[in-house]
Each structure stands twice: as C-alpha cells, then as structure tokens.
Design brief:
16% helix; 10-stranded antiparallel sheet; globular; 40% strand; 193 residues
Length: 193
C-alpha cells in the first residue's frame, strides 16, 4: 500500500532530520527482542513508533475474519507513528490485512462502517500516495478529500478532511482481498492530536 509507505517514509525522514540537528535521547523497547517500540526525543521534535500488533487500532473496525498481513523480510504491516514538533504534529496509524472474501464484500462492509466518521468518498483505484500534501496540513487550510490521480484495481474509501482522515484501501489479491486501514491526523499551532 504505497500511501501508507509514503507517510511512514515522511515520518522517518522528519525524525532523521531532527536527530541530526540536535542532541537527542533514544529509547527502544526490546523486551521481546522485536524492537516494536521506539521513542526519540530532541529539543525540537519527538517521534514515537510502535509496530506491535496492538498498535494497529485506528478506530476503524477490522473486517470479520480478516488477519494482519504477516511480516515479510522484516517488514511489519502495522504501525502507529506520532511526530510532535513546535507548531506541527502528525499521527498515522495504519495496518494491512488479508481475507479470503471478495473485494466487493469488503467494500460493502466498509461503506457502512466508515459512515460513523462522516460522508464516505469512494475512489476507483489507488492514488499511490500522490494526494498526500503534508505541507498544507495543520496550517488552517483543512481541505476536502478528493479522488485525484487514482488508477488501477480496487477502491479507496475516504472520510473526513486532509487534517483528520480515515481511509480504507481495498484491492483484489488472488481469490481474496488485501486491504489497509489508515488514520491520518495532523495539527498546526492551534490544534492537538
């Protein structure tokens, strides 16, 4: 799911810059030797990353019978990322799942469930992360979501705004479905996460 990868990469780049600019403290919780939790604190910004199975709770219900995608090549398919800095904050909670059910059944389930967050925008295909405009988040320019630049198979179901978005990305995979759930929340000087 490239939109999730783009947001995770952005979070890691911001954290790397913060580490280079200032003295920092880094705490890695490795009680179980999986290094699932990392907490980096600098005078300018803080970064917390949790890739444990429980970190995937983003308020979007999980499709019945679906399971988290298994780890591949050290790549975990769920993350809870929080970045806080003076005047800016970003929270991304994302997880990828698999089910043997058809994409149409998964889409129908999420069309109903996402209504609790507001009107649902249905986009054919995937945007590939090209509609992520982090520079405008949290600056008082909260924008409506769009289906700009979507292409390919499956759907993206979106609700909210550019500063508070719930997203479900659905794509066929063999005879079943691979889908991801994502919460993206940002704030500027006036907001809180």
């Amino acid at each position: 799911m490239s939109k999730v990868a783009t947001k995770v990469l952005l979070a890691l780049i911001m954290a790397s810059i913060a580490v280079l600019l200032a003295a920092c403290s880094i705490h890695v919780d490795d009680k179980d030797k999986k290094n699932e939790k990392v907490d980096i604190q600098t005078p300018f910004a803080n970064l917390k990353v949790d890739t444990g199975d429980k970190a995937a709770d983003n308020g979007i219900p999980v499709y019945p019978g679906a399971h988290l995608r298994p780890e591949e090549n050290g790549d975990n398919h769920s993350a809870n990322i929080n970045i806080g800095a003076a005047g800016f904050g970003l929270k991304v909670i994302a997880a990828e799942y698999e089910t043997d059910d058809s994409p149409e059944k998964v889409k129908s389930f999420y069309l109903d469930k996402l209504k609790s967050f507001g009107d649902v925008l249905v986009c054919s295909g995937h945007s590939g992360g090209s509609d992520v405009h982090v520079g405008s988040h949290g600056d008082g320019q909260d924008q409506k979501l769009t289906c700009k630049d979507t292409h390919g198979d499956g759907w993206e179901l979106k609700t909210g705004t550019s500063d508070n978005e719930h997203l479900v990305s659905i794509e066929p995979r063999g005879s079943g479905t691979r889908f991801g759930t994502v919460l993206v929340r940002t704030h500027g000087k006036e907001g809180t996460l």
